[in-house]
Design goal:
single chain, 295 residues, Nucleotidyltransferase, domain 5
């Protein structure tokens, strides 16, 4: 196995084919299996193809030797929107296979996910009942869309995630996310959760302790010194978010419906998970390095 896109796609297919299994139900099985569809979606993100029409035309030349059949744009879009559960299963499966699954440290953060840039777009969008306006403190700007909540391992492997309206409090959503991670046995007793000061609060810290975990966050100005600013440690989760946005095009998802946004976010998280998992297999020092897979 080499560090290139072809070998990553092949290894991913072999790993998730039995997990997803054959398509059940009446009618002929599809020419492109669910496992092949998931691998094709990962390759799309890694090669930076934002338009599905252009991607399918390019994929015939770049990956035609791996995918003898490629659907049309409408068929691919329909299959991809219906494959959200498969993408989530694959993320979870790769996370459990990576050595970092047993790591006693988890990184927690939330980042804005814009879904519209103009008032006219907002008013006509099918996402209107689901999205809301929120304030992005890091860029001092208002946006309309969702917030992505992400729990990862120190190497950047996605462990658990969700989308929520910006109207909800960060601690409220994070509590639900951590509860879900604990139910899936992704939070072992004694796990340290590294978060930012936005998750400060006695109720939230009590909730984390009830999960037999420990919260580590920068000190606020109005409280006694405990951990300090934690600037270097906070770079971990911020660099993971940066990889999703700058290299995997998180903010350029082009989702226009709730299902479309969800599956495109899952698509990028799976691409990150596949790279981290593959780099573990190959012994690459930087587990989030995409250089070998983006061309």
């Amino acid at each position: 196995m080499r560090t290139d896109l072809d070998d990553l796609v092949i290894a991913l297919y072999v790993t998730i084919d039995d997990l997803l299994g054959p398509r059940l139900g009446p009618g002929h099985p599809p020419k492109l299996s669910d496992a092949e569809l998931v691998c094709l979606a990962v390759a799309q993100v890694l090669l930076g193809a934002r338009s599905e029409r252009h991607w399918l035309r390019f994929a015939r030349d770049r990956l035609g030797h791996l995918f003898p059949y490629l659907p049309g744009q409408a068929g691919y879009n329909k299959r991809l929107r219906a494959a959200a559960h498969h993408l989530s299963l694959a993320i979870r499966h790769l996370a459990m296979l990576a050595p970092s699954w047993c790591d006693g440290l988890r990184l927690l953060d939330a980042t804005p996910l814009p879904c519209g840039a103009s008032r006219a777009t907002v008013e006509r969008s099918a996402l209107w009942p689901h999205c809301a306006y929120g304030y992005d403190r890091s860029h001092s700007r208002w946006y309309w869309g969702f917030k992505l909540y992400l729990l990862t391992a120190p190497d950047g492997m996605p462990i658990s995630w969700c989308l929520a309206t910006p109207k909800l409090g960060e601690r409220e959503v994070a509590q639900v996310l951590l509860d879900d991670a604990a139910r899936q046995q992704a939070l072992a007793a004694g796990t340290i959760i590294l978060a930012d000061k936005g998750f400060a609060g006695a109720e939230f810290e009590t909730h984390v302790r009830d999960l037999q975990a420990h919260l580590l966050r920068p000190d606020r100005r109005d409280e006694p010194r405990r951990f300090g600013p934690l600037g270097g440690m906070r770079q971990w989760i911020e660099s993971v978010i940066d990889t999703l946005k700058e290299q995997l095009g998180l903010e350029q998802h082009r989702g226009r419906t709730l299902a479309g946004v969800f599956v495109r976010v899952a698509q990028r998280l799976l691409a990150l998970a596949a790279v981290v998992w593959c780099n573990w297999q190959l012994g690459v020092p930087d587990k989030r390095s995409l250089l070998a897979y983006d061309h």
